[in-house]
From TrEMBL:
InterPro entries: DUF7953 (IPR057713). The chain crosses the membrane at residues 171-193. PANTHER family: EXPRESSED PROTEIN. Residues 35-145 form the DUF7953 domain. The keyword Ligase applies. Keywords: Ligase, Membrane, Signal, Transmembrane, Transmembrane helix. It comes from the Eukaryota. The lineage of its organism: Eukaryota, Viridiplantae, Streptophyta, Embryophyta, Tracheophyta. The keyword Nucleus does not apply. GO terms for molecular function: ligase activity. Residues 1-34 form the signal peptide. This is Valine-tRNA ligase.
Length: 228
């Protein structure tokens, strides 16, 4: 009988210890709760390639792998997703910590172009939705059923495109440099052609003078033969 009482006490103590450990771990932010982020929809307004081609768009957070969006192939088209695609989820968010994330365009000949980078936080989501809009770049909706917890309308972030003047300035510089390079190339070609023409005239003149001298020598020899 004492053995049965001992076993019941031991079992009760084990349950209490397990419950206490669970409550303790749950009270530590970010230890258990991890929130999966999926892409609900996206529309890109601009491709950063200089020549017509299908953009290669991907999502990435700092220190994590790239998640390519294979369905996004053109601009000004709204792509919607179910969250069950093979490349989903995009990332996971801790409960009380943000991540530095962004949407990028892969580039072959230079560093990847940045649509936008921002701090993605669990509190940004309202009723599981978060909209991020970057002027002249893209509009995306992210879904996290376990994030936020607020009520009301969907939360959204609108970012003004402050980098557009700089981008236009860069394009203008490239155009000016290209025009100058073309002008220099044409001038160099004209100079080389004129130099070649001058050298050709000089060679023709030397050849003519040499021929004229040979003719004079022949005439002198003929005249001398007549005298003799």
């Amino acid at each position: 009988m004492r053995r049965n009482q001992f076993l019941r006490c031991a079992s009760s103590s084990t349950h209490r210890l397990f419950l206490f450990s669970f409550i303790l771990l749950s009270s530590i932010p970010g230890n258990i709760s991890s929130r999966e982020i999926t892409l609900g929809s996206i529309e890109i307004f601009n491709s950063h390639e200089w020549w017509p081609s299908k953009p290669i768009v991907y999502f990435s957070c700092k220190g994590e792998n790239k998640t390519f969006l294979p369905d996004v192939k053109t601009t000004n088209f709204l792509y919607s997703f179910k969250g069950q695609e093979s490349w989903q989820p995009l990332t996971e968010l801790p409960e009380k910590k943000c991540k530095r994330c962004g949407i990028y365009e892969s580039d072959t000949f230079k560093s990847d172009d940045v649509f936008d980078e921002w701090e993605m936080c669990s509190d940004d989501f309202v009723e599981g939705n978060y909209i991020h809009f970057k002027e002249k770049e893209f509009n995306a909706t992210f879904i996290c059923s376990d994030c936020g917890g607020g009520s009301g309308s969907q939360n959204s972030t609108i970012v003004e495109d402050k980098g557009e003047p700089s981008k236009k300035k860069t394009i203008a510089i490239v155009v000016v440099v290209s025009v100058l390079a073309s002008i220099v190339t044409v001038l160099a070609a004209v100079f080389v052609y004129k130099y070649w023409q001058r050298r050709r005239r000089e060679r023709d003149q030397l050849r003519f003078l040499k021929l004229f001298e040979e003719t004079d020598e022949i005439e002198d020899e003929i005249a001398l033969g007549h005298v003799i």
